[in-house]
């Protein structure tokens, strides 16, 4: 029943010295925050929540990853603009630019996960399976409970 | 290292057909929210958080209990006033009035737990031991993680 | 068309060395904030707004007056409870207890103004006439504009 | 003592069928909201406040104008990006792009007004003079009072 999380396809990384792969994170819990820098719900809620999770679970086996899944206004949300956004919003967790698709506006990873829009929160367990896939605003208490439960699983 | 949670001493219950004891809740996780109805930090944050936890984990093995630990302004926060407060704020989780002490302003349960003030959040695991004791505003994400981890423990 | 604001009927004052009358405030603008200490919309929004107005216009010709218009749960919101509420919420503007009526639950001043509930904001111009009567949450920007306009009128 | 507000120098307008000049608005009150689309304090507070003022005073003699004063991250905040920002945030008041200067990063109008950063709120009276120049977050109640007072002045 559990689905193995598809690998990320990222064209450029920020806030990490080297590329990140989900395969390389096996054994850890992963919170994948898919967003667009001009998506109001992301900026007001989802992205700050990802940043807080990154800080709160700093000493736990959790990795927070941002994924810039641009599926509209492509010319308005280039990596140059994203870089300024990351700087201005003081985001410190690793953020990857979802690789553009050759045949449509929806980027590669976003399509692999069949995301419906942004923000989307994906939680991946230590065994690499998807345990939560939520579109829209995630309640802090509910998200915390999901992360707490998965972190409690034996590695 | 883990301390068994002391039993509650309650003089009057609201929102429950019969008295609640921690002993009777063994096997379940308990969130004990100690508050005063005229404590601004409780009204603005702690009490609504307890209500949200009550609703969010309705189908999980979690019991949320409010404890009205009046240690100041006793004449201002009588059970009559508390009853109106519960009604006006639409609180639906069980709430007990911490039994007044015979020899001082601090009520019995509050003293047993050595609480420092209100709001205080106490989280009790399925085995009856205290796993978290926090004074002041609790972050939703952090509290959710504690509850999620304890709920993940085998009953 | 403008109605002269009826006089207040107050049984007890807090935060003022002597009773206040609207007649004595002629020449000043008055913001009358009617509330109940157990009304959630008052506690979360209206009462803090009145306190902010009191502080913001400290050097202007504005007097902010709170009026505790208890029309329900009378036993729960006595002056003793109100006094603790004022202390805990650090309210510093003058607050009067609306005089109980002899023949019903609605207090005297509340009835004179035909208020529909709490919170209610009444704004009175320098000439003593009512210029605004709002029930429910008042937008800060809109309320500020009303006060600014009336303060700009020549005394 | 009152300073006449310098004219705007705008390279491109959004949300208006034709260019706007302050001179053409003489007789009206003007709220000039200078912002950058990647300035967190603008996005969270200043720009929504300008939008609310635009809606609240729709039938009053107030014109709200946004001014995109890019003085940093120029490549990240081009008109193409701004256009998407305006669309995504549902901004409906007129917004001009402050004309780039030939000899430095600070655009022309921003320099004329000697603004210190973003957000900046400038309020101009019916006679064209500057009555308020604020840098940073503006309190709604205080801004409302300024606008209300100026609108009360005889045209």
Describe the structure.
- The structure is a homotetramer of 155-residue chains.
- The mean pLDDT of chain A is 97.
- The first copy, chain A, is an alpha/beta fold and 155 residues long.
- Helix content of chain A is 29%, strand content 24%.
- Chain A has a single domain, classed as Glutaredoxin (3-Layer(aba) Sandwich), CATH 3.40.30.10.
- Chain A has helices at 40-56, 79-88, 108-112, 140-152; strands at 3-4, 10-14, 29-35, 62-68, 95-98, 120-124, 129-135.
- Chains in contact: A-B, A-D, B-C, C-D.
- Chains C and D meet through helix 1 and helix 4 of C and helix 1 and helix 4 of D.
Greatest chain-chain interface? A-B, 20 and 20 residues
**Highest-level CATH class of chain A:** Alpha Beta
Work out the oligomeric state of the chains in this entry: homotetramer
Shape, per Cα inertia axes of chain A: globular
What number of domains of chain A?
1
Kindly report the name of the CATH homologous superfamily of chain A. Glutaredoxin
Strand order of the largest sheet of chain A: 1-7-6-3-4-5-2
Average predicted local confidence, pLDDT of chain A: 97
Regions with little confidence, pLDDT below 50 for 5+ residues of chain A: none
Q: N- to C-terminal separation of chain A?
A: 20 Å
Helix share, percent of chain A: 25-40%
**CATH fold-level label of chain A:** Glutaredoxin
Question: Which structural class matches the secondary elements of chain A?
Answer: alpha/beta
Percentage beta strand of chain A = 15-25%
């Amino acid at each position: 029943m559990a689905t193995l999380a598809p690998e990320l396809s990222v064209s450029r990384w920020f806030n990490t010295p080297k590329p990140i792969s989900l395969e390389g994170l096996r054994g850890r819990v992963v919170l994948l925050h898919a967003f667009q820098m001009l998506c109001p719900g992301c900026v007001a809620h989802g992205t700050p929540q990802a940043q807080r999770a990154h800080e709160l679970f700093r000493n736990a086996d959790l990795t927070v990853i941002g994924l810039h899944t641009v599926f509209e206004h492509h010319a308005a949300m280039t990596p140059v603009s994203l870089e300024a956004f990351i700087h201005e919003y003081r985001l410190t967790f690793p953020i990857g630019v979802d690789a553009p698709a050759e045949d449509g506006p929806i980027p590669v990873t976003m399509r692999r996960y069949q995301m419906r829009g942004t923000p989307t929160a994906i939680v991946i367990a230590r065994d690499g399976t998807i345990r939560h896939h939520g579109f829209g605003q995630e309640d802090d208490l509910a998200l915390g409970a999901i992360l707490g439960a998965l972190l409690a699983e034996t590695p």
